[in-house]
């Protein structure tokens, strides 16, 4: 009874001070004094911790868009407790927008990372339970050689730099941000080292002869592709798609060049472990998406199944 009276007294004190009982929470931890938790928003948390949690590059560019979208979808943008109900509401809203489970998982991964940091720093009172949505093993689009020739020729008409950039991407399997972040010291003869990667781990790959030409040194710049703006590049890419009749193919995005590199390695007989190392995948499961392309491995089965008269 005394505990209930104390709680009621605390609430009365808040209300007499002009503070609603719902607007202030306390966070307790062993060995620490109580800390008040004021209302925050996803937008303000990202402004506070975005640069700490994500390095500059295409991944951070995507995360920025994710967090701002989730901020606008919240019924109550200001919060001090992020509940399971709030999380469920966000997922439902994303589904109504046509987001696949794979896309939802990427957005939830960014949200989880931001909220865990905020919770650790005492900005939010509690965290929801994040559960990974089941993903389908969707079709992987890659370019055939004739498609590459037509697309690259159209891009070259707009920009010689973008043309060289595309050649480098398809022959190295690099992500856009990895290639743009390259510096001259990262390129030695016929080999390149990517330091700014999605996994945070560096990797080195050898260069094809045309990739070597694509990164020919230009002293006035600190790297071969540092002057490229991703939005401008994507605009030229989309225009080139339109010109060669691929405008309606939503899978033909710049990342298709990475898929194309991987598919050519697998179809050429390179074992899946080497492909994993080449692409810099953290797990073999990520690379196994391309394993079905190695159909020639099954050719030895046909003679066994043939019926002999």
UniProtKB/TrEMBL annotation:
Question: What's the domain of life for this entry?
Answer: Bacteria
Q: What SUPFAM superfamilies does the record tag this protein with? A: DNA breaking-rejoining enzymes (SSF56349)
Can you give the residue ranges of the Core-binding (CB) domain?
40-119
Can you give the residue ranges of the Tyr recombinase domain?
Answer: 138-303
Cite the entry's keywords alphabetically: DNA integration, DNA recombination, DNA-binding
The name of this protein is Integrase
In its UniProt entry, the species of origin is given as Rhizobium herbae
């Amino acid at each position: 009874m005394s505990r209930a009276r104390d709680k009621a007294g605390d609430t009365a004190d808040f209300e007499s001070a002009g503070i609603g009982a719902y607007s202030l929470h306390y966070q307790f931890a062993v060995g620490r004094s109580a800390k008040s938790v004021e209302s925050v928003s996803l937008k303000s948390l990202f402004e506070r911790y975005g640069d700490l949690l994500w390095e500059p590059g295409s991944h951070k560019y995507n995360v920025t868009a994710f967090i701002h979208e989730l901020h606008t979808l919240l019924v109550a943008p200001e919060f001090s407790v992020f509940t399971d109900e709030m999380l469920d509401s966000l997922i439902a809203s994303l589904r109504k927008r046509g987001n696949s489970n794979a896309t939802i998982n990427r957005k939830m991964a960014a949200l989880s990372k931001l909220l865990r940091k905020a919770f650790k720093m005492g900005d939010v009172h509690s965290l929801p339970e994040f559960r990974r949505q089941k993903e389908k093993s969707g079709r992987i689009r890659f370019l055939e050689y004739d498609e590459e020739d037509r697309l690259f020729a159209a891009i070259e008409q707009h920009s010689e730099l973008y043309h060289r950039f595309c050649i480098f991407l398809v022959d190295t399997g690099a992500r856009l941000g990895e290639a743009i972040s390259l510096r001259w010291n990262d390129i030695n003869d016929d080999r390149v080292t990517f330091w700014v990667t999605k996994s945070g781990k560096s990797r080195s790959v050898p260069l094809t002869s045309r990739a070597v030409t694509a990164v020919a040194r230009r002293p006035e710049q600190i790297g071969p592709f540092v002057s490229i703006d991703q939005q401008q590049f994507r605009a030229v890419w989309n225009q080139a798609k339109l010109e060669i009749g691929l405008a309606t193919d939503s899978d033909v995005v710049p990342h298709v060049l990475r898929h194309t590199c991987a598919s050519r390695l697998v179809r050429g007989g390179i074992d899946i472990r080497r492909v994993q190392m080449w692409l810099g995948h953290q797990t073999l499961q990520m690379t196994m998406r391309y394993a079905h392309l190695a159909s020639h491995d099954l050719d030895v089965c046909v003679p066994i199944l043939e019926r002999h008269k």
